[in-house]
Design brief:
The chain is of the alpha+beta class. The chain has four domains: 3-62; 73-213, 2-Layer Sandwich (Alpha-Beta Plaits), CATH 3.30.70; 225-354, PAS domain (Beta-Lactamase); 358-509, Reverse transcriptase/Diguanylate cyclase domain (Alpha-Beta Plaits). It has 16 helices and 15 strands. It has a five-stranded antiparallel sheet, with helices on both faces. Strands 2-3-1-4 form a four-stranded antiparallel sheet, with helices on both faces. A four-stranded antiparallel sheet has the order 11-12-10-15, with helices on both faces. A hairpin with an 8-residue loop joins strand 8 and strand 9 (343-350). The protein starts with a helix and ends in a 10-residue tail after the last helix.
Length: 509
Amino acid sequence: MNESYRLGEQSIIAHLQRLANGTSTVELDVAALPTELRAVGEQLQKTLAVLQQERQLLERSAYIDSLTNLGNRGGLDRHVNQLWRKGAPFTCAYIDIDHLKHCNDKFGHAEGNRYILGICRALTEAMEHNEMLFRIGGDEFVLVSPTTGEAELEQRLERTRTDLVEATSDGKAPMIASFSFGCSHVDPLAGDTRRQMTMDADRKMYRYKLMHRVQQPKDNDVPQHPIVDQLPCNDRVFQAISMSSETRYPFILNLDTGESQWSVNAVRDFDLPSQHPFNSVDMWLARVHPEDRDNVRAELDMVINGTWHFHYMQYRVMDATGAYALCDCTGYRLDGTDTEPNMYVGIIINRSLADTTDSVTGLGDIHALVNAIGEMRRVARKASMVAIKIDDIAQVNARFGFDAGDRVLAESAACLMDCSRGKGRLFRSTGPMFVALFDEFDPEEIDAIAEEIERFLGSPVLIGSLEYQPPIRVATLHLDAVDRQPVSILNELKALLEEAPQVPGTKLD
C-alpha cells in the first residue's frame, strides 16, 4: 500500500469521526484523495447526503405538525422548556376548534382539514411577531406569548373568533367556523408549575366552550330534549342504584340518539349540565385532562363504531371544583335489535374519593394495587408493570419537613399520569414507590413509556428557594400471564428496582 493511499484512507476516517462527533459540516475534499479512492469518496458523499436529508426529516417530524407546518407537541415542549430555563414569565392560550368532529362526520376529513387550516390561518394572522402557535392534537392548539398579558391575549383571541364567526355565517361556507380558548399567565420564578399552567388554561377553555357554543344551521342540530322511552332504565330505579355508592357513577348512553343517563352524584361531582344530556361523549371528553383526551377519544370511538364491546381506562377528569380527579371507567357496548337501540353502559369510579386511594397523590394505594393484580391473576391475563422509586424522600422529609416530601410525591404522580396518558392504571405502592399496571399492551410500547417516565419523572420541584430534582429508579416487568400471588410479583418488582441504575438528581447534604 503506497503512502498516498494510506493518507487518503486516514483522511476519510478522520472525516467520518468529525461527522460522528458533530464537529464538522464540511464536505469531504474528494479531489484531494488519491485517484483510486475518489470513487469511494464520491459514493460516501452521496450516502452522507441521503443520511443528512433523512435526519432532517426525522427531526422535522419530531417537532413539526405535517398538516399545518406549525410546531407539534414536541415543539411546544421544547419551546416551553427554553422559556422555563430563562425564568421569564409568559402567557399561553389553549385553543380548541369547535365542531371539528361534526365537520369530519358530515363533510369528510378533507373538508375537516380545510376547516383546521382556515382557523390556523386566522390565528396566525392575529399573532404578534414574537409569538408561536403549536398544534398539539387534532383540534387542539396552544399559542405562547412571551410579552402579552393574559387579559390582552384574551381580548385579541375574542376579536379573532368574532371575525371568524361573522365571516362564515353567510351560508357560503360549509359550516360556521369558531374556536374556544382559555389563557393562563405563568411565572417560573414565582413558583408556578407547568401543570398549574395547563390546568388553568384548560379549565378556562372548557368553561368558555360551554358558555359560547355556536349553533350550526338547523339541519345539523341535535335534539335538545330527552326522549324518555329511548333509555331502558326507569329513572327511579337508576337513581336508587346510583345512590348505593358516593364514589361510583353508573351511566347509560343511547348510541343511536346520543341521549345519556347519569346519576345525581355525577351531575354534582362533575358539574354535568343535566341527568339526561345529549352529545354526552363530547360533553365528557371536554372534562378529560388534555394529556389523556386523545387516547380516551380513540377508545370510545372504537366502542361507538362497534369494533370493541368492552372498554376500560383510567384517566383524569375535571370535577366541579376545577381539579382533576383520577377515575376508572369500565363499560360494555350492547348491540341493538329491531326494537332496542345500541347502548353503551358502564360505571365510573372516582379514585380521589374512594377508600383505596392514597391521600397524597390521588392514585390507588397498595390495597388497590394488590386487588388489581389479583383480578388479572384470576383470568391469567398478560400484563406489564413499570415500577418507579424516588430514592431521597426520607432525606427531603428530614431536611424540609413532610409537607415538602408530599409535594415531591404529588408532583411525581402528576408527571406519571402525563407520561402514561390513560393507557394504564397507576398506584402508589409503598412509601416512595409507584407502579403503573398495563394489560394486553405491546411490551415495546410499555418500554417506550418507561423511557419517557425515566426522562420526565425527575423534573425539578420547587422546595422553598431550592429547585430539587428527585433521583429515581425505573424498572419494567413483562408477564405472559399473571399466574402468581400479587405479593410475589411486587417483591420481584422491588428487587428489579434495587438493581436498576439510578437517574441522579439533586444531592442533599
